[in-house]
Specification:
By secondary structure, the protein is of the alpha+beta class. The chain is built from 9 helices and 8 strands.
């Protein structure tokens, strides 16, 4: 849903400064480390979470040496770093529903920082469940159509993959939408058909959306910038229908 995509996706499309690259590397590094522990293996061939994180890392130009070093460190028995997944919910300016996914080693610090960001930008951090009912979890796979492949054959592979829907992002990129329980099966099917997956993640997609005025949009962008600049924040989801049109 290009009008309501994660702020991290928007940021990736922008020109990256060295500082921006460093932040991306830090965030993806945490995802790689957690994927090793959650998936129980440092082998991407049997750990699908780790495989998806490696794809994401390469999409964001993280050097292979960095990827391998992070995976090796996470798999080491002497590694004492512990990050946990925590979801925060709240309302941004204009009543926009916001879900923030974090990887943190200190819940109190992260909650305090996020509350400060929301308050500063005219929003408020809420209790668990206050906005999640406005979203559904979906598998989102980005796929590029090979230039040598006819569109009819390409779409046929999508239809036969048990995906729910697809949307054309640009001339060659398609966004494949799946039910969470079919996410892995769809990925496996497309890979077996020889397709190269650009990214594959489970995301929170909005059920209903709101449209807000320009002043509130500016405040919302400020909030997302503050959130994204926080190393603990991994992904941000929202239900503002006109955000991407402005930024």
């Amino acid at each position: 849903m290009s009008g309501h995509s994660k702020w991290s996706n928007i940021k990736r499309k922008k020109e990256k400064t060295d500082v921006e690259k460093a932040k991306i590397f830090t965030k993806i590094g945490r995802e790689l480390a957690v994927a090793v522990k959650e998936g129980g293996s440092a082998d991407p061939a049997i750990n699908s979470k780790l495989r998806d994180c490696i794809i994401k890392a390469r999409e964001n130009n993280v050097p292979n040496d960095n990827i391998n070093r992070i995976i090796k460190k996470a798999a080491s028995s002497s590694n004492n770093e512990t990050f946990e997944r925590v979801i925060y919910e709240g309302y941004g300016p204009g009543g926009v529903a916001v879900i923030v996914s974090c990887l943190t080693d200190n819940r109190n610090r992260t909650a305090g920082d996020l509350r400060h960001y929301f308050d500063k930008c005219g929003g408020n951090l809420g209790e668990p469940g206050c906005v999640s009912y406005l979203f559904k979890k979906k598998g989102i796979i980005l796929l590029d159509k090979p230039e040598s492949m006819e569109e009819e054959a390409f779409l046929s592979d999508i239809f036969e993959s048990e995906s729910e829907d697809y949307k054309r992002e640009d001339e060659n990129t398609y966004r494949i939408i799946t039910a969470p329980e079919q996410f892995e099966n769809v990925k496996k099917y497309l890979l077996n058909k020889g397709h190269i997956i650009g990214s594959a993640e489970l995301e929170m997609t909005p059920i209903s959306c709101v449209n807000i005025e320009k002043e509130k949009l500016d405040q919302l962008k400020k909030l997302f910038d503050l959130l994204y600049d926080d190393d603990d924040v991994q992904d941000i989801y929202n239900n503002c229908s006109n955000f991407n049109a402005e930024f």
